[in-house]
Amino acid sequence: MHRILSVSELAGSRDDPALLGVSWVGRDAPAGFGTTGLPFQHIVAAQLGRGGAGPAEAWFGALAGREGFAHDVHFRCDAHLLFGVITLAEGDCAGDAGATPLQRASQQAYESLFRVLAEEGYPHLWRVWNYLDDINGTTAGLERYRQFNIGRHQAFANADRLQGCTIPAASALGVAGGPLSIAFLAARAPCIPLENPRQLSAYRYPADYGPRSPTFSRAALARLPGQEWLFVSGTASIVGHLTVHHGDPAAQTREIVANLEALLAEASRVSTGPAYRLDALSGRAYVRHPEHLAAVQAELVRALGAEAPIVYVHADVCRADLLVELEAQACHLFV
Ligand code: 3EB
Protein backbone atom coordinates (compact mmCIF):
# COMPACT_ATOMS: atom_id res chain seq x y z
CA MET A 1 0.00 0.00 0.00
CA HIS A 2 1.22 3.45 -0.93
CA ARG A 3 0.66 6.53 1.23
CA ILE A 4 1.76 10.14 1.10
CA LEU A 5 2.97 11.19 4.55
CA SER A 6 3.79 14.55 6.07
CA VAL A 7 7.13 14.82 7.89
CA SER A 8 5.44 14.33 11.25
CA GLU A 9 3.43 11.34 9.97
CA LEU A 10 6.68 9.92 8.60
CA ALA A 11 8.33 10.26 12.01
CA GLY A 12 5.30 8.53 13.57
CA SER A 13 5.46 5.68 11.03
CA ARG A 14 9.13 4.89 11.19
CA ASP A 15 8.66 2.15 13.77
CA ASP A 16 5.62 0.70 12.00
CA PRO A 17 6.66 -2.92 11.32
CA ALA A 18 4.69 -2.92 8.05
CA LEU A 19 6.64 0.02 6.61
CA LEU A 20 8.79 -1.27 3.73
CA GLY A 21 10.45 1.95 2.66
CA VAL A 22 10.18 5.61 1.83
CA SER A 23 11.00 7.92 -1.03
CA TRP A 24 11.62 11.58 -0.42
CA VAL A 25 11.85 14.58 -2.73
CA GLY A 26 13.97 17.46 -1.48
CA ARG A 27 17.48 18.88 -1.50
CA ASP A 28 18.15 17.46 1.96
CA ALA A 29 16.81 14.36 3.66
CA PRO A 30 14.63 15.03 6.74
CA ALA A 31 16.51 14.86 10.03
CA GLY A 32 17.08 11.28 11.17
CA PHE A 33 16.53 9.72 7.74
CA GLY A 34 18.99 9.04 4.98
CA THR A 35 21.85 6.62 5.04
CA THR A 36 20.71 4.51 7.99
CA GLY A 37 17.41 3.08 9.14
CA LEU A 38 14.76 1.98 6.72
CA PRO A 39 15.19 1.78 2.91
CA PHE A 40 15.06 5.41 1.90
CA GLN A 41 15.30 6.85 -1.59
CA HIS A 42 16.44 10.45 -1.51
CA ILE A 43 15.46 12.17 -4.75
CA VAL A 44 17.73 15.21 -4.89
CA ALA A 45 15.24 17.61 -6.43
CA ALA A 46 13.03 20.47 -5.32
CA GLN A 47 9.36 19.87 -4.81
CA LEU A 48 7.39 22.59 -6.59
CA GLY A 49 4.68 24.60 -4.90
CA ARG A 50 5.06 23.12 -1.42
CA GLY A 51 8.08 24.74 0.16
CA GLY A 52 10.69 22.63 -1.62
CA ALA A 53 10.52 19.29 0.19
CA GLY A 54 8.23 16.55 1.47
CA PRO A 55 5.73 15.00 1.92
CA ALA A 56 7.24 11.53 1.82
CA GLU A 57 5.85 8.60 -0.14
CA ALA A 58 5.78 5.43 1.90
CA TRP A 59 5.25 1.83 0.85
CA PHE A 60 3.63 -0.48 3.37
CA GLY A 61 3.50 -4.26 3.37
CA ALA A 62 0.91 -6.48 4.97
CA LEU A 63 2.93 -8.13 7.71
CA ALA A 64 5.93 -7.41 9.86
CA GLY A 65 8.83 -6.61 7.56
CA ARG A 66 12.26 -8.20 7.49
CA GLU A 67 15.18 -5.92 6.70
CA GLY A 68 18.50 -6.54 4.98
CA PHE A 69 21.50 -5.04 3.24
CA ALA A 70 23.24 -7.01 0.49
CA HIS A 71 25.23 -6.05 -2.62
CA ASP A 72 24.67 -2.33 -1.84
CA VAL A 73 20.88 -2.87 -1.78
CA HIS A 74 18.98 -1.87 1.35
CA PHE A 75 15.66 -3.66 1.48
CA ARG A 76 12.66 -4.59 3.57
CA CYS A 77 10.19 -7.29 2.68
CA ASP A 78 7.03 -8.98 3.86
CA ALA A 79 5.66 -12.38 2.78
CA HIS A 80 4.90 -11.12 -0.76
CA LEU A 81 6.73 -7.89 -1.53
CA LEU A 82 10.23 -6.45 -1.32
CA PHE A 83 11.07 -2.73 -1.51
CA GLY A 84 14.74 -1.91 -2.05
CA VAL A 85 17.00 1.04 -2.71
CA ILE A 86 20.46 1.02 -4.26
CA THR A 87 22.66 4.08 -4.41
CA LEU A 88 25.91 4.04 -6.39
CA ALA A 89 28.38 6.89 -6.83
CA GLU A 90 29.56 6.96 -10.42
CA GLY A 91 33.02 7.90 -9.15
CA ASP A 92 33.23 4.45 -7.53
CA CYS A 93 32.74 2.76 -10.91
CA ALA A 94 35.76 3.07 -13.16
CA GLY A 95 34.97 3.73 -16.79
CA ASP A 96 37.20 2.44 -19.55
CA ALA A 97 37.49 2.65 -23.31
CA GLY A 98 34.36 0.51 -23.67
CA ALA A 99 32.05 2.10 -21.09
CA THR A 100 31.58 5.35 -19.16
CA PRO A 101 31.37 5.36 -15.33
CA LEU A 102 27.58 5.92 -15.56
CA GLN A 103 27.15 2.96 -17.90
CA ARG A 104 29.18 0.79 -15.53
CA ALA A 105 27.28 2.05 -12.48
CA SER A 106 23.92 1.40 -14.15
CA GLN A 107 24.84 -2.13 -15.14
CA GLN A 108 26.33 -2.85 -11.72
CA ALA A 109 23.27 -1.46 -9.90
CA TYR A 110 20.88 -3.65 -11.87
CA GLU A 111 23.10 -6.70 -11.52
CA SER A 112 23.16 -6.15 -7.74
CA LEU A 113 19.40 -5.70 -7.70
CA PHE A 114 18.85 -8.94 -9.63
CA ARG A 115 21.23 -10.76 -7.30
CA VAL A 116 19.18 -9.63 -4.28
CA LEU A 117 15.93 -10.71 -5.94
CA ALA A 118 17.39 -14.17 -6.58
CA GLU A 119 18.89 -14.55 -3.10
CA GLU A 120 15.81 -13.32 -1.25
CA GLY A 121 13.30 -15.19 -3.40
CA TYR A 122 11.40 -12.22 -4.88
CA PRO A 123 12.27 -12.84 -8.54
CA HIS A 124 9.59 -10.67 -10.15
CA LEU A 125 10.49 -7.01 -10.67
CA TRP A 126 7.31 -4.90 -10.77
CA ARG A 127 8.30 -1.23 -10.63
CA VAL A 128 11.58 0.74 -10.72
CA TRP A 129 12.32 4.41 -10.02
CA ASN A 130 15.65 5.62 -11.50
CA TYR A 131 17.28 9.00 -10.77
CA LEU A 132 20.57 10.24 -12.18
CA ASP A 133 22.48 13.48 -12.26
CA ASP A 134 22.57 15.57 -15.45
CA ILE A 135 20.46 13.11 -17.48
CA ASN A 136 20.59 15.20 -20.68
CA GLY A 137 24.32 16.02 -20.42
CA THR A 138 26.77 14.49 -22.89
CA THR A 139 30.07 12.83 -21.99
CA ALA A 140 32.28 10.69 -24.20
CA GLY A 141 30.06 11.70 -27.13
CA LEU A 142 26.84 10.17 -25.75
CA GLU A 143 23.92 11.60 -23.77
CA ARG A 144 24.00 10.31 -20.20
CA TYR A 145 20.46 8.87 -20.37
CA ARG A 146 21.66 6.78 -23.32
CA GLN A 147 24.70 5.61 -21.31
CA PHE A 148 22.30 4.59 -18.52
CA ASN A 149 20.18 2.67 -21.05
CA ILE A 150 23.19 0.71 -22.31
CA GLY A 151 24.14 -0.39 -18.77
CA ARG A 152 20.55 -1.23 -17.78
CA HIS A 153 19.94 -3.14 -21.01
CA GLN A 154 23.15 -5.17 -20.54
CA ALA A 155 22.15 -6.18 -17.01
CA PHE A 156 18.67 -7.26 -18.19
CA ALA A 157 20.28 -9.20 -21.07
CA ASN A 158 22.78 -10.93 -18.76
CA ALA A 159 19.96 -11.91 -16.39
CA ASP A 160 17.85 -13.19 -19.32
CA ARG A 161 15.15 -10.64 -18.42
CA LEU A 162 14.56 -8.97 -21.80
CA GLN A 163 11.30 -10.77 -22.62
CA GLY A 164 8.26 -8.47 -22.60
CA CYS A 165 6.75 -10.36 -19.66
CA THR A 166 9.77 -9.62 -17.40
CA ILE A 167 10.23 -5.92 -18.16
CA PRO A 168 9.08 -3.72 -15.25
CA ALA A 169 7.20 -0.45 -15.16
CA ALA A 170 9.69 2.37 -14.54
CA SER A 171 10.61 6.02 -14.53
CA ALA A 172 14.00 7.61 -15.23
CA LEU A 173 14.55 11.25 -14.32
CA GLY A 174 17.39 13.70 -14.09
CA VAL A 175 18.11 15.35 -10.76
CA ALA A 176 20.43 18.09 -9.62
CA GLY A 177 23.41 16.14 -8.35
CA GLY A 178 23.68 13.11 -6.13
CA PRO A 179 24.55 9.51 -6.94
CA LEU A 180 22.69 7.10 -9.19
CA SER A 181 19.66 6.15 -7.09
CA ILE A 182 17.35 3.26 -7.92
CA ALA A 183 14.34 2.16 -5.86
CA PHE A 184 12.24 -0.84 -6.76
CA LEU A 185 9.35 -3.08 -5.80
CA ALA A 186 9.74 -6.80 -6.46
CA ALA A 187 7.56 -9.73 -5.49
CA ARG A 188 7.24 -13.48 -5.20
CA ALA A 189 4.49 -13.45 -7.86
CA PRO A 190 4.67 -12.03 -11.38
CA CYS A 191 2.89 -8.89 -12.53
CA ILE A 192 1.28 -8.32 -15.92
CA PRO A 193 3.23 -5.70 -17.91
CA LEU A 194 1.03 -3.45 -20.08
CA GLU A 195 1.81 -1.49 -23.22
CA ASN A 196 0.10 1.63 -24.55
CA PRO A 197 -1.68 1.29 -27.92
CA ARG A 198 -0.82 4.96 -28.66
CA GLN A 199 2.91 4.42 -28.12
CA LEU A 200 5.58 2.14 -29.50
CA SER A 201 6.94 -0.07 -26.73
CA ALA A 202 10.01 1.70 -25.36
CA TYR A 203 12.03 -1.51 -25.54
CA ARG A 204 11.40 -1.38 -29.33
CA TYR A 205 12.40 2.26 -29.85
CA PRO A 206 14.54 2.71 -32.98
CA ALA A 207 18.26 3.42 -32.61
CA ASP A 208 17.67 7.20 -33.09
CA TYR A 209 17.08 7.25 -29.31
CA GLY A 210 20.34 5.55 -28.42
CA PRO A 211 22.35 2.40 -29.07
CA ARG A 212 20.25 0.37 -26.59
CA SER A 213 16.53 0.85 -26.06
CA PRO A 214 15.10 1.77 -22.63
CA THR A 215 14.09 -1.30 -20.65
CA PHE A 216 10.63 -0.57 -19.26
CA SER A 217 6.99 -1.39 -19.85
CA ARG A 218 4.30 1.31 -19.94
CA ALA A 219 2.53 -0.04 -16.84
CA ALA A 220 2.20 -3.12 -14.66
CA LEU A 221 -0.83 -4.76 -13.05
CA ALA A 222 -0.07 -6.76 -9.93
CA ARG A 223 -1.99 -8.77 -7.36
CA LEU A 224 -1.54 -8.91 -3.61
CA PRO A 225 -3.98 -10.61 -1.23
CA GLY A 226 -7.17 -8.57 -1.40
CA GLN A 227 -5.58 -5.92 -3.64
CA GLU A 228 -4.81 -5.19 -7.25
CA TRP A 229 -2.15 -2.60 -8.01
CA LEU A 230 -1.64 -0.57 -11.16
CA PHE A 231 1.80 1.00 -11.61
CA VAL A 232 1.91 3.56 -14.41
CA SER A 233 5.42 4.27 -15.72
CA GLY A 234 6.65 7.76 -16.38
CA THR A 235 4.36 8.94 -19.19
CA ALA A 236 5.34 11.76 -21.52
CA SER A 237 4.12 13.58 -24.61
CA ILE A 238 5.17 10.78 -26.96
CA VAL A 239 2.99 9.30 -29.70
CA GLY A 240 4.43 6.30 -31.49
CA HIS A 241 8.05 7.03 -30.66
CA LEU A 242 7.97 10.76 -31.47
CA THR A 243 7.89 13.68 -29.06
CA VAL A 244 4.91 15.90 -29.89
CA HIS A 245 4.09 19.54 -28.93
CA HIS A 246 7.65 20.87 -28.75
CA GLY A 247 7.92 23.86 -26.43
CA ASP A 248 4.28 23.76 -25.25
CA PRO A 249 3.93 22.46 -21.66
CA ALA A 250 0.10 22.64 -21.61
CA ALA A 251 -0.23 20.69 -24.88
CA GLN A 252 2.37 18.15 -23.70
CA THR A 253 0.36 17.66 -20.50
CA ARG A 254 -2.86 17.14 -22.48
CA GLU A 255 -1.06 14.51 -24.58
CA ILE A 256 0.07 12.81 -21.37
CA VAL A 257 -3.55 12.69 -20.22
CA ALA A 258 -4.55 11.12 -23.55
CA ASN A 259 -1.77 8.55 -23.10
CA LEU A 260 -2.95 7.85 -19.54
CA GLU A 261 -6.54 7.38 -20.71
CA ALA A 262 -5.40 4.81 -23.28
CA LEU A 263 -3.29 3.02 -20.68
CA LEU A 264 -6.10 2.97 -18.12
CA ALA A 265 -8.44 1.53 -20.76
CA GLU A 266 -5.84 -1.17 -21.41
CA ALA A 267 -5.49 -1.86 -17.66
CA SER A 268 -9.26 -2.01 -17.25
CA ARG A 269 -9.51 -4.46 -20.15
CA VAL A 270 -6.87 -6.79 -18.64
CA SER A 271 -8.02 -6.49 -15.03
CA THR A 272 -10.87 -8.62 -13.73
CA GLY A 273 -11.91 -5.84 -11.35
CA PRO A 274 -13.61 -2.47 -11.81
CA ALA A 275 -12.33 0.06 -14.36
CA TYR A 276 -9.29 2.21 -13.55
CA ARG A 277 -10.17 5.89 -13.53
CA LEU A 278 -8.06 9.03 -13.93
CA ASP A 279 -9.47 10.53 -10.74
CA ALA A 280 -8.31 7.56 -8.63
CA LEU A 281 -4.60 7.98 -9.47
CA SER A 282 -1.90 9.28 -7.18
CA GLY A 283 1.48 10.19 -8.57
CA ARG A 284 4.36 12.49 -9.29
CA ALA A 285 4.55 15.09 -12.05
CA TYR A 286 8.07 15.97 -13.14
CA VAL A 287 8.37 19.50 -14.54
CA ARG A 288 11.55 20.58 -16.33
CA HIS A 289 11.08 24.34 -15.91
CA PRO A 290 9.47 25.60 -12.66
CA GLU A 291 7.81 28.43 -14.60
CA HIS A 292 5.69 25.77 -16.38
CA LEU A 293 4.18 24.54 -13.10
CA ALA A 294 0.95 26.56 -13.39
CA ALA A 295 0.25 25.39 -16.96
CA VAL A 296 0.96 21.74 -16.11
CA GLN A 297 -1.03 21.86 -12.88
CA ALA A 298 -4.06 23.47 -14.59
CA GLU A 299 -4.23 20.63 -17.12
CA LEU A 300 -3.79 17.90 -14.52
CA VAL A 301 -6.39 19.44 -12.19
CA ARG A 302 -8.81 19.55 -15.13
CA ALA A 303 -8.20 15.88 -15.95
CA LEU A 304 -7.60 14.28 -12.54
CA GLY A 305 -9.52 16.62 -10.25
CA ALA A 306 -8.38 19.30 -7.81
CA GLU A 307 -7.98 16.77 -5.00
CA ALA A 308 -5.70 14.41 -6.92
CA PRO A 309 -2.67 13.55 -4.78
CA ILE A 310 -0.01 14.64 -7.26
CA VAL A 311 3.44 15.71 -6.03
CA TYR A 312 5.13 18.19 -8.41
CA VAL A 313 8.88 17.80 -8.77
CA HIS A 314 11.50 19.93 -10.53
CA ALA A 315 13.41 17.38 -12.62
CA ASP A 316 14.77 16.79 -16.10
CA VAL A 317 12.89 14.41 -18.35
CA CYS A 318 15.01 11.93 -20.29
CA ARG A 319 14.56 13.53 -23.73
CA ALA A 320 15.68 17.13 -23.98
CA ASP A 321 12.46 18.08 -25.84
CA LEU A 322 10.13 16.70 -23.15
CA LEU A 323 8.96 19.33 -20.65
CA VAL A 324 6.81 17.20 -18.36
CA GLU A 325 6.26 13.59 -17.33
CA LEU A 326 3.69 11.96 -15.05
CA GLU A 327 4.00 8.68 -13.17
CA ALA A 328 1.15 7.25 -11.16
CA GLN A 329 -0.35 4.36 -9.31
CA ALA A 330 -3.78 3.15 -8.27
CA CYS A 331 -4.93 0.41 -5.93
CA HIS A 332 -8.17 -1.55 -5.98
CA LEU A 333 -9.19 -3.26 -2.75
CA PHE A 334 -11.36 -6.36 -2.92
CA VAL A 335 -13.87 -7.03 -0.18
C1 3EB B 1 9.41 7.70 -22.70
O1 3EB B 1 8.23 7.34 -22.80
C2 3EB B 1 9.68 8.78 -21.71
O2 3EB B 1 13.97 4.91 -19.12
O3 3EB B 1 12.93 3.96 -17.46
C3 3EB B 1 9.51 7.12 -19.20
C4 3EB B 1 9.47 6.09 -18.26
C5 3EB B 1 10.70 7.40 -19.84
C6 3EB B 1 10.62 5.33 -17.99
C7 3EB B 1 12.98 4.78 -18.39
C8 3EB B 1 11.84 6.64 -19.56
C9 3EB B 1 11.79 5.61 -18.65
O4 3EB B 1 10.33 7.23 -23.38
C10 3EB B 1 10.80 8.53 -20.82
From TrEMBL:
Q: Which Gene3D superfamilies match?
A: RutC-like
Recorded hits in InterPro entries, A to Z, give: FkbO_Hyg5-like_N, RutC-like_sf
Domain of life of the organism encoding this protein? Bacteria
Every Chorismatase FkbO/Hyg5-like N-terminal domain range:
57-186
Signal sequence interval, chain numbering? none
- The name this protein carries in UniProt is Chorismatase FkbO/Hyg5-like N-terminal domain-containing protein
- UniProt organism field: Zoogloea oleivorans
Lineage, top ranks: Bacteria, Pseudomonadati, Pseudomonadota, Betaproteobacteria, Rhodocyclales
